[in-house]
Structure formats: C-alpha cells, structure tokens
Amino acid sequence: MESFRTSHRVPFLLRTISKVVIAMVNGPAAGAGFSIALACDLRIAARSAKMNTAFVNVGFSGDYGGSWSLTRLVGTAKARELYFMGEAIDAETAHRLGIVNWVADDDALRAETTRIARRIADGPRVAYGYMKKNFFAAETEPFATVLDLEAIHQTRCGLTDDHREARAAFVEKRKPVFKGR
Questions:
Q1: Which residue from 162, 44, 58 is spatially nearest to 99, judged by alpha carbons?
Q2: How many distinct structural domains can be found in the chain?
Q3: Domain identity same for 100 and 55
Q4: Which of 17, 33, 70, 98 is spaced 20 to 30 Å from 45 by Cα?
Q5: How far is CA 30 from the centre of its chain?
Q6: Does residue 181 lie within any of the structural domains?
Q7: Across the chain, what does the average pLDDT equal?
Q8: Which residues are within 8 A (CB) of 166 and not within 5 positions of it... i.e. 6 or more apart?
Q9: CATH code of residue 79
Q10: 84 and 144: one domain?
Q11: Cβ atoms 181, 126 nearer than 8 A
C-alpha cells in the first residue's frame, strides 16, 4: 500500500503544480496511464488513440486518482460505466464525453500539441497558477470559499508585471508580451 501512496504523488502534483500540464495521448492510454492523463489540465489525443480504464480487465479497482478525475469530467454514471465495463473508447468518443479537449490527426499531433503549449507558455503564467488554485478549490470547497480565493488571486494578479503589460497592450492595441512576473 505504501508504494501506491508514493506513486500517487504524481497525479496530485500534476493537479496542484502552478504550471499548466498538457497530456499528449499518441497511442493507447489504459489503467494508470489513462489516470495520469486525466490528472493533467488539458488533453490532446491522436485520432487513432484509444483510452481505457482497464482495471476491471485485470481484477483491480483503480489507482492514480482516475475514478475521482473521470467522475468530474464525465459524471458519475458514465465514469462507473467506463470503470465497470472496461471497454476502450476512441479519441472522438473521448472528445465527445469531455475527456480530451482536442483530437488531432496522428501526423499533426505533435505540432498541434506544441502550438497549444506555446500559446500557454506565452500567456500570463502567474495568472495560470492562480487559475489552477481556483479550479482545485472549486472541486472541493464551498462557493463562498472559492469567491474569496478568486478575490485574493485576482488582486494578486493585478499587482503583477504581466497584468500591467496586458493593460498597456490593450490600450496600445497590440498583443501582450508576458514575462511570468
């Protein structure tokens, strides 16, 4: 059991790190691999990718927080179906269910993932970190608590160089150049 607790730090860190984490699914994602992809902030899959909880097929109950993540992405009934039946789904189905954000042609997957990653990397990194904290709290905390956190985080973002740059870029009708400060 202790080895699971140690390895379960991975999905926890993926969810709580201040950086936006993107999963690029370029083949089968099953069991723990699927759960790790679910712990990422965004997911892009190759058209040929297949995803499967797979645990029932090997007599396991699940790990890496997959049941928690999948329930929040697709709802209780669908998450239970995917776990209890253990059937693989294709990338288009995963997209329709909200498991993946984008589907790309296999030969364009890396370029499309890089494009999305570049867009995020060029964005307001401090604000992204606070957004992640807001979303993490939104999954477990009462609405009033999230409102308070948003107020605190919005105020902190307003004090950053990135916010000042975005404000100046807006007035000057140009694209902002964020520095992550």
A1: 44
A2: 2
A3: yes
A4: 17
A5: 17
A6: no
A7: 93
A8: 124, 176, 178
A9: 3.90.226.10
A10: no
A11: yes
Residue 117 shares a structural domain with residue 129: no
**Residue 120, pLDDT score:** 96
- Own/partner pairs, 155-158, CB within 8 angstroms, 24+ separation: 156/126, 156/130, 157/124, 157/126, 157/127, 157/130
pLDDT, one tens digit per residue, over 116-126 is: 999 999 999 99
Q: Would you give the end-to-end CA distance of the chain in angstroms?
A: 41
| Domain coverage including residue 36 | 2-121
- Per-residue pLDDT tens over the stretch 102-160: 999 999 999 999 999 999 999 999 999 999 999 999 988 999 999 999 999 999 999 99
For residues 48 and 89, membership in a common domain is answered with yes
The token duo for 32 is 């723990």
Distance CA 180, CA 114 (A): 19
CATH number at residue 135: 1.10.12
* pTM metric for this prediction: 0.89
Report the DSSP pairing between strands 22-25 and 28-30.
unpaired
Residue 1: the pLDDT is 65
Contacts of 136 (CB under 8 A, 6+ apart): 15, 16
CA distance 96 to 113: 19
